[in-house]
Amino acid sequence: MAENLRNRSLIGAFALLAVGSLAACGNDDSASDDTTPKPAESETAETGETAVEGDFKAPAWAKPTFATGTKLTTVKAGDLSIDVYKAGVAEAPEDGIFVDPETRKPVIAKGDELVFVNYVITNEGSGPIDLDEVDVEIDARWDDWPYVQDMAGVKGDEELYMEFKINGDDDDDMADFAAYDGDGPMPLAPGETVSFGDSFGFEKGHDLELEVEVGDEAPVETSVRVD
Known about the structure:
Residues 1-23 form the signal peptide. Residues 27-53 are annotated as: Disordered. By secondary structure, the protein is mainly beta. It has three helices and nine strands. It has one domain (8-226). 8% of the residues lie in helices and 30% in strands. Strands 1-2-3-7 form a four-stranded antiparallel β-sheet, with no helix packed on it. Strands 5-8-9 form a three-stranded antiparallel β-sheet, with no helix packed on it. Strands 4-6 form a two-stranded antiparallel sheet. The longest helix has 9 residues, at 8-16. The chain starts with 7 loop residues before the first helix and ends with a strand.
């Protein structure tokens, strides 16, 4: 199940866990210009001022979905509609797993701001979609992200996911294993919704570039300013 409906940001994070450093985009001349995110100005967790919370119809095998925070944009990919929410901002509880190759400092340091996003996925088609067979891949990057690897947050932020009512950062976290055995199909009927999220260093005022790919269909790309 972990290979379905996965977040490619996590794939990049785990692939680099053993390495512990990032490779910069471009040639060596540009690598020296890379900078790490600046420390956070906020000391407390916060949600969007225009908070929106609502319940969605979830399939029997999935956890409920909550729309907390501020909706940034909606991406249409095939019969799926993906609402992207800025669920909240909080301080990183520890250093991130990535290290800048030039400075040898964590790309995300303890106390830096993390932004938590929630991907709310709804079937708007006329028939069910088996998410065990159809992969939904979402890649999110800031417009000035200088590295080849995907963005990632930090470990130890599980309580923050719970605070912002996000079903974790992995496809396994969408399922209610009291109702799903992990081996069966994952049907998403028309009108039903599932969700998972992500977290990474917050770059206020920058554009977040999103690429969504559903099954074998062509990727859908968009960007949205995040304040």
